[in-house]
Write the structure tokens for this entry.
Amino acid sequence: MSHQNTTMDVESLHKSDRRGRSYHDVFVVMSIIFLFVTVAAMAAAGILFAVNLRSKVSPSALTFDMSDRQPAFPQYKIDKFAYLEAKTVELVTSTMHWHQVFYGPTVSVGSNFLFDQAQQSLKPQREGMYFMYIDLNITCTFRCNAGLLTITVGDHLTCQLTLPDMANSTAVHQKCWTVTKLNTEGLLVQMTVPKDGLQHWKLNTKGSGFGIFLVD
């Protein structure tokens, strides 16, 4: 009789243990579902934020009026903005060369950036989300061969321009932009052309530039 009672107690404990494991399994499953839903919601919110940001920030508004050297974006603080104008006209595989633009007493590189003329690098002084863009104005000067021109800013922005066969003086324009997170490392802009080169194409320094600003 005592043995039966002992057996019944053990079975009771097994049943209790099974119920406990069942509750635990349900809790784990619900926790995983909750975590999945939370991550999905955060991802959706991030996508909506990026879309909203891109809709509010238009690259067409981020240009310089080079005729009077006045910035065309009074709503942005100049210390959070930097603009560099192209310095050389040759289209060759190399690190692109830039120079700052002066309009009145103000320079086009704000205090949030450090432009190293020797290294041709632009270094943000703060980590954060940045809007950056490349403006390219290319002109055919004689009989120009077709080819692909590629401009890269690290792994943050790639701008490709397909140049056609040309026999006359024709300008080709391309603007590329992105919103990306940056640290305080220097940014280099690299130009890449085909092995055969891009004969008789030249970069118009006026209107070709690299712009970036810290997004609030």
